[in-house]
Each structure stands twice: as C-alpha cells, then as structure tokens.
Task: inverse folding
C-alpha cells in the first residue's frame, strides 16, 4: 500500500464550471497505482468540486442558471457584503455542492461513470487562482 | 493494511430513495476488515447517495416533496431538455446531494449512527440500472 | 501505513454553525502521521459537517439566514411533523450539506485552505449531543 499527493492549480476567469477531468485522470494514470481511492479536495470556500455530466455543455449552462436563481447576487438578506455582491452567494453555493469527493480507482483508472466528468465550480465573478489537492492511496 | 472493492447494482423503478443499507453493511461484515474506511461512489449524474433517517418512511416522502418543489420538472429556465423534463432537474438534485460518502468502520461494522441509513436517491422518473462502487481500506 | 480513529463529542445549544477546527487539527497534530488522509463523519441526520469561511462571523449568520429561508420550519408541505416543526427541515438541510468530508494531511497538518474552517452545523433548535468520527490513514 502506498500513497501519493498532487495539486492542480486552475486559473479561473469567471463564474462557471471548469472541466478538470483530464488533469485528474492523467495524474492517476501516471501514478502506477492500479487499485485504490482518489480523493479531491478544494482549498476554498467560494469554489467547489462537482461530478457532473460531461457530454452536453447545455447542462453546465442550466446548472449555473439554477444556482444564480436559487442564490441571487446582492440578496438583501445578506450582511456579509464587504467582499462584493457575489461573495456570500459563493459561500452558500460552496455549502450546497462539494468541497471533497472520493472516487475508487480500478485497473489504473479513475472509476468515473460513462457520462461523468470532474468539474471545478468557480462561484465568484472575478478571476481566481484555485487549488485542488489530490490524494491517492492504493497498490 | 488491505483494500477491497465491490459493486452494488440497483434496479430502480421511479424517483425516490432506495435503502441500500443491508447491501452495504453485509459486504463490510463479510470483508474481514475490523477497522478502516468505507467509501461509496455512485457512477451517475442523475442519481445520488444520501445518508438519511431510516426510521420513519414519511421522512423519505417529505425529502422528495421538497426536492420536487425546489427543482421543478419542466422548468422553462432549462435549455437541456432533449432527454426529458426530469433530466436537468435530476442533474441539479445530484449536485445538491452527494456523489460520494465515506464512513469509518469500527469493530467490523459500518459506523452509522443509530438513525442513519444509506440510500440511493433515484432522480429520474423512469426505471434505471444504477451502479454504486464500494471501496474499503483497513486492517 | 497506519490508521487511527477518534471521536469528537460536541454539545450544541441551538441552530447554528460550531467551529470544530481546533479539535480536528489538534488531534491530527498529535497523531504522528505526516502525510495521509483525514475523514470526518457525522453520525446524525439533522446536523452536518461543513467547510466554511473561518474569518468573518457574518458569513455564519448569512449561511443560517439562507437555509432558514430555503427550508422553512413548519412548512405545510411536510407530513413528518411528530418530532417538531424544525425536524424535517433539519433532515433536508443535512441532505443539502455534507455528512462526510475528506481532507488531505500534508507535513503533519490538515491541508485546509487559508480561509477554511471545519464546522459542525446543528440544524435543530434544541440542545443536542453530536458525535463526529475522525479516521486518519497515512504514514
């Protein structure tokens, strides 16, 4: 049994879902681990990790439309507004989605389903540098 | 330290929560692992994993009533409609709940709380074959 | 490779977010494990685990304001009401947030981002005794 660590640094340029599947699967393929468990962890509270459909890009558009309506920017409900009208909504979107996800590794591959991709969900409007930690344990 | 993999295949017949606790706990009990970590991962983006109350079936009814109201089928907001009025809502329900959950194993048992059960949440109206991967590591 | 288990018992006194970061980081620091993976698991269906901003306490206030509006107590939609007007909302809040979270451990420290804290989110109005299990694997 062994473990490996990695970090994906992603430059975002606005509020949307970013497909990081290739970054994730490539690193696992090079790790030499055949069976194990991969964990992704995002070190932020205004961006998140999401497993989502990787086929029709309209799904990503609709996902964002839904969250924009559910957690509106500039909602007068919020008192934490010093960092911008989209900051508190970003924290709430983060709470409603995922900060960490663990995926089994089988036959040297991340065991994603046929239509699954791994996405970084940027919830802030401005560009940010986001860090996703990867931990892989197995043999 | 050792690890084991397993797959639960569940035939669903409509949108609701399916209790898979017995399938999960039975496999862990037979694994021979006394202490460790169990991870469940669902290979779909229109069904999810949820830890929920296992006692009063009304909780499952209310859970579904809430999600049906929060993410209405056929919402004109959505452009991804080719796969049916319940498809995009299913992806959003999946994003709002969980794709993976990890639970410690103690004394050879999945360390669920007294009122906790493990559920597969089918978000599509039609019948589907759903796959949940299980990864267990420990000693 | 080795693993360790721990339990945090938290006495809550009302519906809000409780910072358990010091309890978590102190235990990991004392574990002697330099690199690995920490998993937190809450044994309840009316309280949850959340990674959230640890700096401005207003974020915690706004988070609660949002969930109180999204999942209102005493909603006539619910039929599971025997345990109180805040019980079914608590189960839904639990489903919308997290029951388990896994965080890499690097250089003997939980690899939280600069502004991240680990919170127990009590969703019931009355005082409760809540149990969070910790599992740490690594070397």
Result:
């Amino acid at each position: 049994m062994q473990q490996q660590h990695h970090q994906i640094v992603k430059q975002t340029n606005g509020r949307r879902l970013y497909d990081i599947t290739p970054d994730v699967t490539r690193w696992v393929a090079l790790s030499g681990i055949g069976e194990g468990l991969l964990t992704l962890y995002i070190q932020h509270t205004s961006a998140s990790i999401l497993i989502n459909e990787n086929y029709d890009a309209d799904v990503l558009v609709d996902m964002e439309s839904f969250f924009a309506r559910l957690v509106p920017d500039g909602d007068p409900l919020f008192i934490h507004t010093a960092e911008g009208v989209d900051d508190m909504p970003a924290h709430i979107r983060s709470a409603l989605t995922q900060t960490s996800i663990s995926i089994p590794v089988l036959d040297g591959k991340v065991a994603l389903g046929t239509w699954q991709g791994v996405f970084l969900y940027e919830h802030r409007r401005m560009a940010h540098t986001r860090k996703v930690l990867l931990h892989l344990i197995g043999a």
